[in-house]
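Translate sequence into C-alpha cells.
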Amino acid sequence: MLFFKKASREEPPEKKAGLFARMKSALSATKENIVGKIEAVLGGVSSIDENALDDLEETLLGADLGTAVTDRIMTAVRAQYKKGQLKTPDDAKNEIRNQLAAILSARAGDETDNAPEREATPQVWMIVGVNGTGKTTTVGKLAARLAGEGRKMLVCAADTFRPAAIEQLAVWAERSGTELIKSKTGADPSAVLHDALAAAAARECDLVLIDTAGRLHTKSNLMQELEKMRRVAGRKIPGAPHETLLVVDATTGQNGLNQAREFMKFTGITGLIVTKLDGTAKGGVLFGICQELNIPVRYIGIGEAIEDLVEFSPENFIDSLFK
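Result follows.
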C-alpha cells in the first residue's frame, strides 16, 4: 500500500532549469561511468552486429548496473536486433535509454488503494538505513523541505544510540521551525516514538518523520527493534508507518542493493532516498534496486546544501544522463 503524496505546487520554469543544471552536474561522474562507456563502445561501430552486442553487454556489467539490469537491457536489445528493428548505434542507445527509464518508473504497492488509513492524520514516515549513509542529515533536510511546502511537521529523534544524531536533528529543527520530540541518549526508541505520535496528534501535525538508529543490516536484534517501532506506530496511528524510506549511500555501489534486500525482509521498504550522488560514479545502483525489488526512488541528494535534497523525477534523472 502506498501513501506517498507529491507536492501539488508547480515550480517556476527558471527554478526547474536551475534544478536540472545542478542535477546534471551532480550526476556527471555517473553519466561518464554509464553513458560514456556505452558511447565509447557504440562510437567504434557503424552498425550493430553480434560482436558489438557482446561488447555492449560487457560494458554494462562494468558500469555498476548489476547483472539483473544488464540482463534486462540486453534481452530487450537482442530481441529488437533479431527483429531487424535495431540496426544502428543510435538505435541501441535509444533502447538502453528506454529500458533504464522503464526501470526507474517502478512503483511499490497500489496507488489506487482507497483504504481509510490512506487519509490518516498525521502521516507517519519512518526513515531507516545503515550508519554513514547520511540518514539523520537527510531527515533534517526532508523536514525542512516538507515544512517549506506548507506541511505542519514533527520530527521524532528515535536514534537514541548516537548522541550526535539527536544534536543534529535539534539543529535542523531549529533552522526549519520544525517541532522535535527527543529524549536522552540510551532511551527506548519505541517509547520516544510513542510520545512523538501522541504529541503529533495533539498538535494536529500533518506528518511525522522518524529518525531511526543507523544500524548494520546484518544485526537481527536491531532489525527487530525496527519491527517493534512499527508495531507501536500502528497502534497509535491507523496504518502507520505509512512510508518506510531507506536511505542508501550511492558511493557504496552494489552494496546498497545488498542493504536494500536485507531491510526489505524486516521492514517492508516503500521507497528510497539515495544520497551523495554528487560524489560518486556509482549512481547506477538506483537501477539495480528498482529493478530487483520494485522500490521507487522518492528523493535524491545531489549536494550538501538544504535545497540539494530533491524530489526524484525519473524523466529528469534519465535526461541528466543522456542529454
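Note: The domain at 118-322 is CATH 3.40.50.300 (Rossmann fold).
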